[in-house]
Amino acid sequence: MSAPTPPPAPTPGSRRTRRRPRLTRGDLGEAALLVLLVVVALSGLARTFTGAQFLLVGAVGALLGAGSALLARRHRWPPALPVLLAAAGVVLLGGPLCLRSAGGTAYLPLPGTLEQLGDAVVGGWRDALTTLPPVDGDGPLLVLPFVLGTAGALAAVLAAGLRRPPVALQAVLVLAGPFLVLGAVLLLGVATPASVLLQGGAFAALSLGVAGLRARLRAARAAATAPVVPTVTGGTGPASGRLRRGLTGAALVALAGALAVPVGSWAVGDDDRFVLREHVSPPFEVGQYPSPLASFRRYVEMPEPDAANRYEQVLMTLEGAPEGTRVRFAALDSYDGVVWGAADRAAGASGVGVTRASFQRVSTSIDNPVEGEEVDVRVELGEGYDGVWLPTVGALTELRFTGPRGDAAAASFRYNLATSTGVVPSGLAPGDAYVLEAVLPPDEVDADDLPGTPDPALASAASFLATQAVQWTAGEAEPMARVLAAARHLRTVGKYTDGVLEAEKIYTAGHYRGRLGEGFVDDVVMAGNDEQYAATMALVANAIGVPARVVVGAVVPADGVVRGEHVEAWVELQVADGSWRTLPTETFMDYDRPAERPPLNEQEMSGTVVPPPAPVPPPSSLTDQTDAELDARAGEPEEAGFELPAWVVWVLGIVGGPLLLVALWFALVLGAKAWRRRRRRGAPRASARLVGAWRELVDAARDLGAGVPVAAGVTRREQARSLPLPAAPALARTADGHVFGPTPPADGVAADYWEQVMAVRRELREGVPWHRRVRAAASVRSFRRT
């Protein structure tokens, strides 16, 4: 009988030696592929951000997450440590990468910077969904791709380090992070994909490559641990087989990527993708601001000086705007029977989605696909203009505020693409300036134009003028021709008055139903100014079935200086292609003044002819908008507080960053050790608590530099001989006696043993110099399993 075969000697990687795992080329290659996969997923934000800085920031985040996970795998750290390490990296790098546009101390991880970073992390998704794309590529919203890249790569590389799940399940876990990043990008992006080739073909090919490499690495590890069996090979060697398998895999990956492009294009369709921004209404109510049409008489000529009058005052100066260009203060597309105002969601814009029909934040560049003449205009507000409505020209494509109040105005600015109307909730004041680039689209109205889709709300609000809509358009059949006929009737029959002369004060201001009905179209003399004519014309057009809205603005004179005398109110009509065309004021209003009204006789006083009703004041006007209201609504920018001297900022920049990094490292390590100690002390079984207490003593000694062996198979008594403590052997025997004893130890025994171990641990720490204790507190040696 032959002698029994001795057991094989322990090999590196076996449970007996339990050495620190090495990161192979395959592990690093897999991590690189996962980082690339996350970056490809983030490339879908190309239409959401301007420039390519978002992709660079996202790549840095992916490298941070992957590096944290690889470091944890190398040192066998618990999963909480790489997460904390990645979070610390986000805190340290978030300011320089994402908040650099704020300047100043934003590069340093000071409390103010951390507060901004926290706000961006928590509310960045909301700001991104309520901002018209593309957003500024160097603003605080860069936190989104940074955090998505970090989290996606961290989750993927951590999942790649798992060894127990089956191959298929592990491949799913590894790819879960990049796929979640891709899903978040699709939801936070725009309806039109940035690149089907990247988001479909490249992403699919890389995903298959990662899955194939994962299976190959799993097979290689299994082969490394399996016994060697001699085999007889034929003419083709292992190298030939590997080459054949590699070429086959590459061909399959390329085929999958090529098929993903047409399939993705067919699945996505044209602007038919579900995105959150088309279903999220911005938390902004434009109806809280007064209608500029309600205070139109601020801009009329007064016979006597009036402090509130703006007729002769300079409202704004424009450079670069051609003569005759229309400057719009606001487009008013909602009528409630009292006042024409701006709607939170533009009327007649049901087909363009929430994004284009509501007031949203915008960045410097505005994606406004309008064809026409391009203009570059600089606007400076004069002494006669205030309020919240931003004067604009045409359809904005770029806007930059200048001056000391520019940052505050840019931060609060909202713009509606459907109405080309801008609002600055923080308020405008004389001296504010801005530069805009815009497109002046063709806006002539023709009788043959087909109208857009009528708005039911406006048609219902205009029902009190249904009779006039029929009588004034007799002989015309087409909707647009009927509107032009109604405009000619108004211009022919109506008279112009601002109601400021003594004989004309009976013609009151306002455009509520009573003023437009009995006080205008049904009055003995139909008289009013732009306010009544534009309000009536827009309502009659809606009653006919042509979508119409009122616009308050001015026509730029030759010198570019707009005064109150240049302010007008005109009407815009929507045609079938969705665009809006201008119906100029002179089309429906003449400047013939009314004759003096005859005195009322007794028959008229008895009730045959009723005098005009007392004017109902509009809900508010621009004169009512005080500084206090603006402060309450949006908050004026606060005065600059105490600023640190330049040399202090310089010193903090050099010293503060490293110190904060050291402090964060101490906090992370101490927190991890406290969590480990609490888990050991709270183990469900008393024997496990005894083992945990002994390990706590061994870990404390290792952090202080003691060479205590911790490999598999080393007993507690052997470890006790390496501990520089007289009580260590007794403690080791006590633990062995209870753990291996015939009866389970009682809970009180474990508690007493913990007290003894903690007392000995304190003695151990007190016996070394303070600098060794500090170094031990930051040491992660005890987290290594060998």
Précis, in short:
With 786 residues, this protein is an alpha+beta fold.
Structure write-up:
The chain has about 775 residues and is of the alpha+beta class. The chain has four domains: about 25-220 and about 245-280, no CATH class; about 285-440, no CATH class; about 455-620, C8orf32 fold; about 645-785, no CATH class. It is about 45% helix and about 10% strand. The chain contains 24 helices and 19 strands. The strands form five sheets. Strands 1-6-11-12-8 form a five-stranded mixed β-sheet. A five-stranded antiparallel β-sheet has the order 10-13-7-2-17. A hairpin with a 4-residue loop joins strand 11 and strand 12. The longest helix has about 35 residues, at about 645-680. The protein is elongated. The model is unreliable at about 1-20, about 230-235, about 265-270, about 350-355 and about 600-640 (pLDDT under 50).
Describe the structure using short key phrases.
single chain, 786 residues, alpha+beta, C8orf32 fold, 4 domains, 5-stranded mixed β-sheet, 5-stranded antiparallel β-sheet, 24 helices, 12% strand, elongated, disordered N terminus
Largest sheet: 5 strands, mixed
Task: Estimate the helix proportion, in percent.
Answer: 40-55%
* Overall number of strands: 19
User: What proportion of the residues form beta strands (DSSP E)?
Assistant: 5-15%
Unreliable residue runs: 1-18, 228-237, 263-271, 349-354, 600-642
- Label the structural class: alpha+beta
Q: Overall 3D geometry?
A: elongated
Note the gap between the termini. Answer: 40 Å
What is the radius of gyration? Answer: 38 Å
**Lateral arrangement of strands in the main beta sheet:** 1-6-11-12-8
The number of helices is: 24
Mean pLDDT: 80
Number of domains: 4
